[in-house]
Amino acid sequence: MGKKVVVIGCGLVGMSYVYSLVNQKTNVSELVLVDLDKERVMGEVMDLSHCLFFAFSRIDIRAGDYSDCGDADLVVITAGVKQKIGDTRMDLIEANSVIFKTIISSVVQSGFKGIFLVATNPVDVMTYLTWKYSSFDCNRVIGSGTSLDTARLRFLIGDRLKISPKNIHAYVMGEHGDSEFISWSGASIGTENVHEFLSDDELNNISNEVVNAAYSIINRKGSTSYGIGMCLVDITRAILGDYNSIITVSSYDLENDVYIGRPAIINKNGVREVIPITLTKEENDKFLKSVEIIKSAILKVK
Ligand code: NAD
């Protein structure tokens, strides 16, 4: 049976997600767009409807409101303010936590029983707040986490080595932000460890490029949207298609009481399980540093 998705926040990220979704084969049959700017959303719906002639399958796309979440399978949240040049993702926390209180309570009031997928930054904190404000089971609240950073990493390695990014098994973990890190010890190209192919200097350069990718794009075009749009579709397909895909989403870490980016198995129940990864001492210290940063940001809004 076709699935229903409600997108809350139809700016650049929300619409990049919707446009990617319409362009891919999925089992979504109903797509509802919600935004404060109702006129712009009407325009988006009209424009998108004209794409449907070319789409893989029939999708009913319309503008709506929170009552549409009641029978939705997935609510994707991209509403809120974004980084301006010079801002870190954490600079958005105050404005976006206020918006989220209203959004999450309105979604819950609708009787929503599906899965939350959050992209608004700082995404680890906003996902934690979504979990707290909704009182949902933690497995049913997912943040895009470091999925975009992992896609960037695999692209960069693949581009250097002329190998398909699909055959690169490497993960960006931790905060989706300045303290994120790559677990190089477990990274492989096909079956061989990445150190067989790239020197420490090359790995450091790639690491810096990944961590600074958003700043490099924002300095040039003001915001990032296509990459996260595709990541959100990938997570959507894993959930609604019950794929059991391994994706570095932001999931709940019971030991540290934070949401944080780690590879996890994603299916129709949301996060099925987090994959235990053996980290070196240095990598584990980086993970704990990310935990502390997210934790103190959560305390600030609490
Ligand atoms: P944008 O300004 O283009 O769009 C934001 C939209 O949210 C606007 O249409 C606005 O009207 C809407 N909005 C604001 N408050 C709302 C509310 N209370 N209810 C409904 N809609 C509301 O911004 P954008 O470029 O789409 O970015 C959105 C968010 O996504 C930002 O926080 C940005 O930092 C984040 N982002 C995350 C990632 C990631 O990897 N997780 C990547 C890129 C951007």
Describe the protein's topology.
Blueprint: E1 3-8, H1 12-22, E2 28-34, H2 38-49, E3 60-63, E4 74-77, H3 93-109, E5 115-118, H4 123-134, E6 141-143, H5 147-161, E7 168-169, E8 172-173, E9 181-182, E10 188-189, E11 192-193, H6 200-211, H7 213-221, H8 226-240, E12 245-253, E13 258-267, E14 270-274, H9 281-301
Parallel strand pairs: 1-2, 1-4, 2-3, 4-5, 5-6
Antiparallel strand pairs: 7-10, 8-9, 10-11, 12-13, 13-14
Helix pairs in contact: 1-8, 3-4, 4-9, 5-6
Structural class designation: alpha/beta
Rg of Cα set: 19 Å
Helix content: 40-55%
* Order of secondary-structure elements: EHEHEEHEHEHEEEEEHHHEEEH
Q: Based on the coordinates given, report the CATH architecture of the largest domain.
A: Alpha-Beta Complex
Strand content: 15-25%
Low-confidence stretches: none
How are strands sequenced across the largest beta sheet? 3-2-1-4-5-6
- CATH H-tier superfamily of the largest domain: Lactate dehydrogenase/glycoside hydrolase, family 4, C-terminal
CATH class group of the largest domain: Alpha Beta
Q: What's the total count of β strands?
A: 14
